[in-house]
Amino acid sequence: MKLQGFAAAAAMVFAAAAAQGAQAATIDWTQWGPFNTAGGTASGTAGGVGVSFSGEVENLFTGYPSWGPAGSYVGGTVSNAPPAAGGIVQQFGGNGAVINTITFSQAETNPVIAIWSLGQGGINASYNFINAPFTIEAGGPSNEYGGASITASGDTVFGSEGNGVIQFQGTFNSISWTNPTFENWYGFTVGVDAVPEPASWAMMLVGVGAIGAAMRRSRKVGAVVA
Is the dihedral of CA 195, 31, 151, 154 positive or negative? Predict the structure, then answer.
């Protein structure tokens, strides 16, 4: 019974650590580098993870837009907005036959995408994701053009001057979508969850210690009985 109690306590510690991480994840946003508009490619790194993109690349901007105000890109499980220096991949959309694909150098759990200036008044543009369920974590106006939060229906994100961040649910090596509606212009960047916060690691280590203590006590009790 005591062993079960220790195990239950350890499980609660692990659950608390996981919940703490889920409440406010620090995101490593992609620092975009080389790109090729003719070939439709761009690449960069998010923390220690390689990120590559193929599809529509009209341009790659660094230092613009501002990814602000922060409240439009921070919320839910996302605790930090993309930095302006990281860059944004510019798209126009309008060709549903083009498959846009982000590929990670390793499998990533619950990656995120920040979307900027999607659509405009009278034009409801969209990102139609393919087999990649997600939730909207944040949204609101941009510093440059105002607007409002992106919205979602099924596997599709919509915006009439929409901005925000979505988080994908699951583990992915790649994420694909189409942009069927033309609008000049909108863009995105991608991020991955950084290393868990030190406090979360500490709580997990406490849980490991509790399990170890329970196992040692169990062995000692067994030896005395024998």
Answer: negative
pLDDT at 64: 84
Contact assessment for residue 142 and residue 163, using Cβ atoms and an 8 Å cutoff:
yes
Radius of gyration of the chain (CA): 22
Geometric angle at alpha carbon 106, from 101 and 109, rounded to 5° = 80
The predicted pLDDT at position 217 comes to: 53
- What does the alpha-carbon distance between residue 18 and residue 189 come to, in Å, rounded to a whole number? 26
Average pLDDT value for residue range 180-199: 85
End-to-end, the C-alpha distance of the chain in Å comes to 18
Instruction: Retrieve residue 109's tokens.
Output: 């759990």
pLDDT for residue 112 is more than 80: yes
Place of tokens 């979307």: 115
Are 82 and 158 in contact, with CB atoms under 8 Å apart? Answer: no
Return the amino acid letter for 198. Answer: P
One-letter amino acid for residue 147 of the chain:
G
The b-or-e profile of 27-58 (16+ CB within 10 A means b, else e) is bbbbbbeebeeeeeebbbebbebebebbbbbb
- 51: which strand partners? 44, 104
DSSP state for residue 57 in the 8-state scheme:
-
Could you tell me if 53 and 99 are in contact, meaning their C-beta atoms sit under 8 angstroms apart? no
How far apart, in Å, are the Cα atoms of 143 and each of 105, 176, 226? 33, 28, 73
What pairing do the DSSP bridges indicate for beta strands 125-130 and 156-159? Answer: antiparallel
Q: Can you point out the beta strands (E) in the chain?
A: 27-29, 31-36, 41-46, 49-54, 59-61, 88-91, 100-109, 112-118, 125-130, 134-139, 148-149, 151-153, 156-159, 162-168, 171-178, 186-193
